[in-house]
Structures are given as C-alpha cells and as structure tokens.
Design a protein that fits this description.
- By secondary structure, this protein is mostly beta strands.
- The protein has one domain.
- Helices cover 9% and strands 20% of the residues.
- A three-stranded antiparallel sheet has the order 3-4-5, with no helix packed on it.
- Strand 4 and strand 5 (79-82) form a beta hairpin.
Length: 110
C-alpha cells in the first residue's frame, strides 16, 4: 500500500486520570498545551499500536516529545518522552515523529 498523502484514521482521547499523571510527572509543563484529542500520526496501518503526540514544548535540555500509544478499542494507558526522529527529507523537511517510529516519515504522509 502506498501511504503517500495518507494518515491513519484512528483517534482516541487522553483519559482524565492519565492527564493528571502527566501533570504530576511534569509539573512545569504548560497544561493548556497537553493534547487531549488524540489522532494516530502514522501512515495507515491495519494492526499494531497507534501513536499520538501529547506534548512537544519541553525546554532544553530535554530533547524529544511526550508520546502515548493505544490499541484499537482501547484507551491510552502510558506515556513517555521519546527522542525526535533525526531523518530529514531530500528537501530538508524534518520528520515530526519519534526516533525509530514504525512506518513512513511525516513528509511521506502529507
């Protein structure tokens, strides 16, 4: 399947108890910027985990973003900081996913 110009359509929400955990774990983050309506950022896929960005505004020295994942028909139940994908397109567009993400890079799914 060619994923060019396509993105997974799976969506979820950030459960309230997980939002509380995020804010307790990272008390200095801007709570207004924590994503609550989640959409899988990967290219279309029929199985496996879905991934969404929760927060991407950490100051240095934190290098990366806060991500979550879920399976179909389940809510996200964990979060972690993942380093950014270092890959760039031939036109120097940065990939907005995490290091070692499955599937295509972001510029390949626009």
């Amino acid at each position: 399947m060619n994923s060019l110009g396509q993105q997974c359509e799976s969506a979820s929400i950030l459960p309230p108890q997980m939002r509380r955990e995020v804010l307790q774990t990272y008390p200095s983050i801007d709570r207004r910027l924590v994503e609550e309506d989640l959409a899988c950022v990967l290219a279309p896929h029929t199985d496996g985990e879905h991934y969404a960005l929760l927060y991407d505004h950490f100051p240095a020295p934190i290098m990366g973003a806060l991500w979550t994942r879920w399976q179909d028909d389940e809510l996200p139940d964990s979060f972690w900081i993942r380093p950014d994908c270092p890959t760039t397109s031939p036109h120097s567009d940065a990939c907005a996913h995490f290091l070692a993400h499955p599937g295509a890079h972001t510029w390949e799914t626009r």
